[in-house]
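Hi Prof. W.,

I finally got the Delta-1-pyrroline-5-carboxylate synthase prediction working! I wasn't sure whether to trim anything, so I left the full sequence exactly as given:
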Amino acid sequence: IRYWSNIPFITMPLSRAHGKSFAHRSELKHAKRIVVKLGSAVVTRGDECGLALGRLASIVEQVSMLQNQGREMMIVTSGAVAFGKQRLRHEILLSQSVRQALHSGQSQLKDMAIPVLEARACAAAGQSGLMALYEAMFTQYSICAAQILVTNLDFHDEQKRRNLNGTLHELLRMNIVPIINTNDAVVPPPEPNSDLQGVNVISVKDNDSLAARLAVEMKTDLLIVLSDVEGLFDSPPGSDDAKLIDIFYPGDQQSVTFGTKSRVGMGGMEAKVKAALWALQGGTSVVIANGTHPKISGHVITDIVEGKKVGTFFSEVKPAGPTVEQQAEMARAGGRTLAALQPEQRAEIIYHLADLLTDQREEILLANKKDLEEAENKGRLALPLLKRLSLSTSKLNSLAIGLRQIAASSQDSVGRVIRRTRIAKDLDLEQVTVPIGVLLVIFESRPDCLPQVSALAIASGNGLLLKGGKEAAHSNQILHHLTQEALSMHGVRDAVQLVNTREEVEDLCRLDKLIDLIIPRGSSQLVRNIQKAAKGIPVMGHSEGICHVYVDTDASVEKVTRIIRDSKCEYPAACNALETLLIHRDLLRTPLFDQIIDMLRVEQVKIHAGPKFASYLTFSPSEVKSLRTEYGDLECCIEVVDSVQEAVEHVHKYGSSHTDVIITENEKTAEFFLQHVDSACVFWNASTRFSDGYRFGLGAEVGISTSRIHARGPVGIEGLLTTKWLLRGDNHVVSDFSEHGSMKYLHESLPLPQRNAS
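And this is what came out:
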């Protein structure tokens, strides 16, 4: 490192020592100095004459946002030639029209041919206008921009390199955004540069290598290359088998087939990759992404800096295991093999997993103890979540019992015929159950969820991706290992995958071509985030568990306190725990009401008063902030209603369609409640805590769904199946069934095959 004008610069880019590039996308949020390279296809309009002003304004807004966060932003831009071409064409047309009008004296002009415009002349005409546009846009965000024009020779001349380096550092020090472009008006013929192994460092043909060279010279943390494709594909984009490469590693070039370059610009993807690898070797992280897509261009730069899965990320650190995309493909292949097994074989796998849970309980509990100790030491989990995280011998025994129930009930789940129809003579139609495909189950603080969900996926023949919370990492690891051990007995080890990479949940939710259904298991906030992030993938679950118990005037004194205590106090962190207690107005100031309040106080339940309840009291508990609150702890709201009808209306207005209960001895009132409450589970004289797959006899559940399509309530094996149609014919064609055809539709219902009695 030498010094010039008190500013350090590097004479040999590849020997600099500012540190290694980031190993993972999640680290990109720490990038301080960033170069954004805007390709010609990003900056110019589709007709290649003029600039894409809306797109450019969005890019300037994102760069300004990052600059105002304290980052040092630089832009390498194309567009001068396109902008100049637009101006020159306008001038030529105007000039021709004037001359033609003077020459002919006619008001009607003939078609005029526009000569081919030389690129250097276009650049000369466009540079000032392009910079004026950038300045006007950045001014809107109180940011100053400065233009720097360079040529290839500026990097070969030692003094010019020093000057360029010093100028850029001084601009960054003053919080100015440098906008760098090749001086295309005077650019000499391209010269090869050994540093880039044949790729021209900077020339009119290649702004990519200019950005790479600049990024390395300036010790930049991140180089973002925006083009008109999503990133790097393993074959030319648009071809049938082309797949976007999420992470590209040095040495992977042989596995990539490059296509043609973009409609404008001179680089092409091969040049981008070579430049990116050169920058990566120099210690700068690189992402190549699409800057033209209307749905993502408005936030593509900020998404990349936040570590989101956008474009292709270049990394020198290759993970030891498979990528999440590879895991999803393995799960799909394994799931299909699993579905093809005999029902008895799938049941054997689940029975074996149940045995392993009890046989290996010491190892499981030891791993769980590590998770609990780490969580307590870091203090990052609330008490309800710590309870969910904790495993015990009794929990493992209950898990094993539940798994055996699943195994017993799975004998005829896949391939069961649910409808048979004779369409015509020798033309029979069947509707049969089949797996959904690949499930993504995201859960937090619930390691017991892993074997439950795995068993249900195995029973239903689905491939499974599991993403557990890092607070349960040790527990999840051993439970997944035992699951794969059980799967190995019939050669389907890969059907259940545990995602251990640093994938963000939001990125997993974008894998719509690999995942068929997302099932979140956790807090209401987690479920809401996943429902918001899911792109084209259905989400099964409930965002909240706001469960009600309504105490009617005809309620039994003996039943009321038992059911309320069990619903609220047995496991207050559960999604099926009581959150709002509705009391009929006539029960206020009665012995029954006093018993309810005394019981809640003994159980140390904090009471919040609904607005109507508070109006009846001189000294009331704290008034509830919202009647749509899921406390998840020893807290609940009490509200007063005038009738069962008002109770139903309250549930519909403030509930989450999860589980709601009526306590009454009046059968007519109970039936009204059962029929009119529109929730997934509605009970009469029973605790809300019965809303559970194990208690329903499903063995276990992947979750409780409050949606109205496909599955609702506790979701067991049946909820993880869909159907397909099988039609068996003998040379049948539709034309035979026309008005003058030889065949007629019968549409006769046929008896279903006998179900397996076991």
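The longest helix spans residues 80-104. Does that look reasonable to you?

Thanks,
D.
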